[in-house]
Amino acid sequence: MTPELTTRIPIPDVVKILGSGHYLLRGSSYNLYQQIRQDVGQQLLLTSGIRNVVKQIHLFLAKSLQSELNLSKASRSLAPPGHSFHCIGDFDVGKTGLGELNFTEDFSRTEEFMRMVNLGYIDIRYTDTNLYGVRYEPWHIKIG
Asked: Mind giving me the DSSP string for 10-54?
């Protein structure tokens, strides 16, 4: 995914999404998010956007601590640094008011998810039957 652990994302290449605290890459990621939101509704929100490797290191270390330092278990729900598709523009969405359940299969039972499926926006990178051992992520929007 990422050629170097010190690779940075230039500030002019990202757009901060108001109200989310997250950023998207300008171009395909930002445009797709705007289109999905327009088509699906304002209840859809960005829950995670572009991440550089340093951010992924922090997230992975936190997940590792939650997993009692079991790196295999941690990597089922968060890619190790340098291996996240978030570094190339993938992003996560959720439904306003759903909170932590946005990162569970509960999100796949929302009206917003069903609209995204019906409109062809869902191309799940990690399906519920994937062979990589990664959990099912219906909230993850694949770019390219």
From this structure: -GGGEEEETTTTEEEETTHHHHHHHHHHHHH-TTEEEEE----HH
Half-sphere exposure of 56 (CA within 13 A, CB side): 26
Residue count (the chain): 144
The CATH fold assigned to 11-141 is Muramoyl-pentapeptide Carboxypeptidase; domain 2 (3.30.1380)
Give the pLDDT band of residue 79 (cuts 50, 70, 90). Answer: confident
Question: CB of 139 within 8 A of CB of 47?
Answer: yes
pLDDT digits (tens, 9 = 90+) for 128-142: 887 877 888 899 998
